[in-house]
Design brief:
- Helix 5 runs antiparallel to helix 6 and helix 10 packs across helix 15.
- The termini are far apart.
- 59% of the residues lie in helices and 10% in strands.
- It folds into 3 domains: 126 residues, 2-Layer Sandwich (Beta Polymerase, domain 2), CATH 3.30.460; 75 residues; 89 residues, no CATH class.
- The chain is globular.
- Strand 6 and strand 7 form a beta hairpin.
- It is α+β, with helices and mostly antiparallel strands.
- 35% of the residues are buried.
- The strands form 2 sheets. The protein has a 5-stranded mixed sheet, sandwiched between helices. The protein has a two-stranded antiparallel ribbon with strand order 6-7.
Length: 300
């Protein structure tokens, strides 16, 4: 299913002369485990050139996909947008990669130069090669944190396959795209990775955003970060109003009940304040712990 989805989308984008790189999937799993069936997934991660992103989005709509609406006013999109349709795998359409702070065109060119072609359902697509695979595994582990068993398992397997010299090349690549912080934090999720990070002399400092990624996910924790960084009371009020009363598209994406009917949508709106109240204090505590972790990292 993953290969068929990636092939369909890549062909459609190729017809619009948009180059595609499959960031994760069967090729990465085969490299890690020798068998693509060992590790299952339900989404496809595709990187496209940033200047072609709007055309790529239009192509996704033409294939029957709908954009997952998770955009909060006053905040920035991270690295990708999720697209779904009624059946099959979801597609994460990337204009950059997670953790990379360099300009997205530079990230695209760097990833492209470290990718190689691979056969896919009778066609061909580019996939990461060499040190780029190591970089993506560590970034993916850092993105999902210490409690995500699959990504931490992938990291442990990559650490078994690659020696310190290869990880040094991945660290150099991380530096090229300004992704060293999340790369180092991802490595340090496991004892073997911590040893590699120490040997490479990678920095231990992490930002609040990275600290939130590494921790056990708690709904609303990120909202406190946004509130803290919002420029003034008006921006904070706008953010709070959005959290209480998001657009209908957001609600339909957030709760399946809201997609069934207008009555279901109304019930979802009634449930929304209760859900926020349920997670307000746990989210606050998680945010405070992440702030403390970020401060402590500056002293180590």
């Amino acid at each position: 299913m993953l290969e068929a989805t990636a092939d369909e989308v890549a062909r459609a984008l190729g017809a619009r002369r948009i180059e595609v790189i499959l960031l994760r999937g069967p090729a990465l799993t085969e490299w890690l485990y020798g068998n693509a069936a060992v590790r299952t997934s339900i989404d496809v991660d595709l990187l496209v050139p940033p200047d072609a992103f709007s055309t790529a989005e239009a192509t996704m709509r033409g294939l029957g996909y709908a954009c997952s609406v998770d955009v909060t006013p006053g905040t920035e999109l991270d690295h990708a947008v999720t697209w779904r349709r009624s059946a099959g795998a979801t597609v994460d359409l990337h204009w950059t990669i997670v953790g990379a702070l360099a300009p997205s065109p530079h990230v695209w060119q760097t990833v492209r130069s470290h990718s190689q072609p691979r056969a896919l359902s009778g066609s061909e697509i580019k996939v990461p090669a060499g040190e780029l695979r190591l970089l993506l595994v560590a970034l993916h582990a850092g993105q999902h944190g210490r409690d995500h068993a699959r990504t931490v398992g992938d990291l442990n397997r990559a650490l078994e396959l690659a020696d310190t010299h290869k990880w040094a090349a991945a660290a150099a690549l991380a530096e090229r795209i300004d992704a060293v912080e999340l790369f180092a934090a991802g490595l340090r999720l496991t004892p073997p990775g911590s040893r590699v990070a120490a040997e490479l002399g990678l920095p231990s400092r992490i930002s609040l955003g990275t600290a939130l990624r590494l921790a056990t996910p708690v709904p609303t924790a990120g909202g406190y970060r946004w509130l803290e960084s919002a420029p003034g009371s008006r921006a904070r009020a706008k953010l709070l109003f959005f959290k209480l009363f998001p657009p209908a598209a957001f609600m339909r994406d957030w709760r399946p009940l809201a997609r069934r009917s207008n009555f279901g949508l109304a019930l979802a709106y009634l449930y929304r304040p209760l859900w926020l109240a349920r997670w307000a204090f746990p989210g606050y505590l998680a945010w405070r712990r992440a702030r403390r972790a970020a401060r402590d990292s500056e002293r180590t």
